[in-house]
Amino acid sequence: MMLLERKLNDQFGSVVTHVKSTAKALDCSGASVMIIHKDRIVSEEYWGKHSKDPNAKPIQVDSQFHIASVRKSYIGFATAFAVFNGYIDSIDDPITKYLSFANEEFLKNIPIRQLLTHNHGLHTIDGKLIREFAPGQSWAYRDINIELLTQIIKNSTGKTIAQILNEEVFKPLGFRETGWYDEPNDKLVQVIKEQNDKFWSTSKGTDGDKKNMYVSTRELAFWGYTHLKQGFIDGTQMVSKEILKLATTLQSPNSLNTALPQNGFLWFVKDIPAKRTEIGYHVPKGAFQILGYTNVALLVIPKHDIVAVRMFNRFGSTPGYDYLWDIRGFGDVVSECVKE
């Protein structure tokens, strides 16, 4: 486990207040927040329970939250690993170089870059593949690109997402509260959702390509810290600097409308101001962030030497909750707490 000095203070008190306000708006059963600033844990709080059952376990330091799309940051790392090590020649290679399909005209001439930056234009409705827009001409957040990417990684490297992350990150850093789970256990926080939510699905499989990833607050913060420090931890290069840098460098096509979100290897990256970005307007250039549908978020701000994590166990939004406004607000409050 990563060794960081824990020196709590009230500098980021308004961030804790913001997260608690969001937790109330989401009607979740438990939440947490952790902030690392200048190599110190300066804020760390846990509240609520693992579920709405009166006898549920309290949220605590080793509670693991379902992180939903935050898992894409790990898939981004695995893709960067494949590129850096030459398993993938270039992210501008067409996906058909690494995948074979029968009679799928829609998949031709789509480069891996467009899967990473959500510009591919593909969508599935009722199990049928359709094209929403011409490749590279717009932006849409869909699952099909993740399905294709994970298969490309398996085909090119001969390894699963989980194998790559275990070998390159989890074992070197001693992560034991990060992983993919087939069955519930007493450390996993229950996801609170609407009854018969059509978007919620349970997944099984520990290859790292399914939506069943759970992470503790501290290990998600340490994952962000690993990126912030480019893998140089406790005086040793623990994780490849080149892979981490590649994963968080802006990769969106130059031709993309500047109002649309900008991405690295699935991470949202702050570059020029973008109307549809999920990153706060006051968050400085060079920051990167990942957000999940359970409202979990990881924000890294290199300029201010900050990693900020918020955890919730609510799947989706409650009536009146504007997730885009709220996640931007989270980043802005974090940025405003920094004393120059």
Percent in strands:
15-25%
CATH class: Alpha Beta
Which oligomeric form is depicted? single chain
Question: Radius of gyration, rounded?
Answer: 19 Å
Helical fraction equals 25-40%
Query: CATH homologous superfamily, by name?
Result: DD-peptidase/beta-lactamase superfamily
**CATH architecture, please?**
3-Layer(aba) Sandwich
Count the domains.
1
Overall pLDDT metric: 94
Describe the sheet with the most strands. 7 strands, mixed
Order of helices and strands: EHEEEHHEEHHEEHEEHEEEEH
* Low-confidence residue ranges: none
Q: End-to-end distance, in Å?
A: 31 Å
**Large-scale geometry:** globular
Q: Number of helical runs?
A: 8
Order of strands, widest sheet: 1-3-2-14-13-12-11
> What is the CATH topology?
Beta-lactamase
Q: Please give the number of β-strands.
A: 14
